[in-house]
Write a structure and sequence with these properties.
By secondary structure, this protein is an alpha+beta fold. Helix 5 (about 200-245) packs antiparallel against helix 6, helix 6 packs parallel to helix 10 (about 410-420) and helix 7 (about 295-315) runs parallel beside helix 8. Helix content is about 55%, strand content about 20%. It binds adenosine-5'-triphosphate and magnesium ion (MG).
Length: about 450
């Protein structure tokens, strides 16, 4: 670009010079031709000297053979000249010719030749030589200035490109580093991206995903920890009972029978936990597809209430129900039955003697709503958000008495969600609880 521009500038300046020089050379040639033809060189000497002084250069008159007839510096008279410009015009190839020639190391001269024509014949040439050192210096200056400007511009462009590339790749590099860290097992790795736009969005989404993976990993190990703990407790109890039986062979038969009964209970409890765990993990892995069919929800509630009636009576509780007739929906019967069972079972377990448990079922065109009320111990506000978590129990000591593991509600919620429904709870300490399950009644179900 710089070269192109300086080339343009210098050729424009030279062209201007050429036009001026050629015009004055032509004029001069026309005016001196008659005198030259008449070989009246003396008459020309003064005007030519003046003209040379005006132009700040030197003028030569050359005859048709190329011999210098007059030199305003009086040096070359009588010599033959082979200046290309003069040769060109004398040969008739052109009426004028122009060129720049070096004079010595620093100086250049512009030579301009014009043909002297007399009676239609070329009788010689006028050659004007003017120094162009200044012009060349000016051009060189322009050249160097342009070059400086272009170096600065190119440098700035390069810097800008580097900065741009850096800002673009830095977040990607940061993201790659974090992904590698995470790949090596550091789940706490997060990207810190300062940019905005798409890359920030990408980094944010990545961080959200990383957060979820970390939480998932934590809850999984928590789950395994809790599960092992829950399984260990009945095993420890059984070992204790068994050791008693082994080391006291002469134990009274009654006590022995009681120990055996306790062990049997522990085994029941153990297998109950294992069944729950299996149910949960199968639902997690989506290995248990719902076997949907039309279920008479009213009948299902009645059966469950019937099954739990003895437990309620034993605990001295009133079990009441208000069930809408013929509520049917598309559902997996055994899972739905577990939902109802667990909720009523909890209500009975966590309601002290003399209390009340009421089961309501009603429906509209879109959904069936089952609610289980109790007048029991309730759930403290701080525990409410957690009661659907696996192994979560409000009062561990108390639920051990009742044999709870804290898996019931998490199974219930998962089953309800599998059916596209939702479960909510309203409760407070000592104020009883209401668990409400809403299930969609699909078109054509009712
Ligand atoms: N109706 C209720 N009234 C008061 N607290 C309840 C009620 N239902 C559940 N809870 C509290 O929520 C906890 C979790 O209930 P969940 O049914 O998941 O476990 P669980 O009954 O202890 O054991 P599991 O049902 O696995 O045998 C219970 O331990 C209890 O503290
Ligand atoms: Mg329960």
């Amino acid at each position: 670009m710089a070269a192109l521009l300086t080339g343009l500038v210098s050729s424009t300046l030279y062209a201007q010079r050429t036009r001026q020089a050629s015009l004055s050379a032509e004029k001069l040639a026309a005016s001196v031709a008659p005198f030259f033809a008449a070989a009246d060189l003396e008459a020309l000497e003064d005007p030519l000297n003046n003209a040379a002084a005006d132009a700040g250069g030197r003028i030569l008159l050359i005859d048709a053979e190329g011999k210098v007839q007059l030199d305003t510096l009086s040096q070359l008279e009588g010599t033959r000249t082979s200046v290309p410009e003069a040769v060109t015009v004398l040969s008739g190839a052109d009426s004028r010719s122009y060129g720049i020639h070096p004079m010595n190391e620093n100086d250049h001269a512009a030579l301009c030749a014009a043909a002297m024509v007399y009676d239609g014949e070329i009788i010689g040439a006028v050659l004007i030589s003017t120094p162009v050192t200044e012009l060349r210096q000016a051009i060189q200056e322009v050249e160097s200035q342009l070059l400086t400007v272009f170096i600065v511009v190119a440098g700035a462009a390069l810097m800008a490109a580097l900065i741009f590339a850096f800002t673009l790749t830095a977040p990607i590099k940061a993201l790659t580093r974090t992904i590698r860290r995470m790949g090596k097992g550091d789940l706490t790795a997060r990207v810190d991206v300062q940019t905005s736009g798409e890359l920030k969005e990408l980094a944010d989404s990545y961080n959200i995903m990383a957060e979820k993976i970390e939480n998932f990993d934590q809850s999984r190990s928590q789950f395994v920890q809790n599960a092992s703990h829950e399984l260990k407790t009945p095993l420890a109890t059984m070992k204790l009972l068994l050791e008693n039986l082994i080391y006291q062979p002469d134990m009274p038969a009654e006590l022995r029978a009681e120990f055996m009964q306790d062990m049997n209970n522990e085994i029941d409890r153990l297998s109950g936990i294992i069944t729950d765990l299996l149910t949960l993990t199968q639902m997690d892995a989506e290995q248990t597809p719902l076997t949907l069919k039309t279920v008479d929800f009213t009948a299902l509630c009645e059966e469950t209430l019937h099954a739990l009636q003895p437990a309620a009576s034993k605990a001295n509780l009133t079990l009441d129900d208000h069930l809408a007739r013929n509520v049917s929906l598309m559902a997996d019967e055994s899972k739905l039955s577990q939902v109802v069972y667990n909720l009523i079972d909890n209500a009975i377990k966590y309601t002290p003697e003399g209390g009340k448990v009421i089961v309501n079922l009603h429906t509209d065109s879109r959904q069936a709503v089952l609610s289980v009320h109790d007048t029991g111990i309730g759930i403290p506000e701080k525990d409410v958000p957690h009661i659907f978590d696996r192994f979560y129990r409000v009062d561990k000591a108390r639920s051990r008495e009742t044999g709870g593991t804290g898996l019931g509600l998490s199974i219930v919620r998962q089953m309800v969600q599998l059916h596209g429904g939702e479960i909510t709870v309203e409760s407070a300490s000592d104020a009883g609880s209401v668990f409400t399950v809403t299930l969609p009644v699909r078109k054509g179900d009712a």
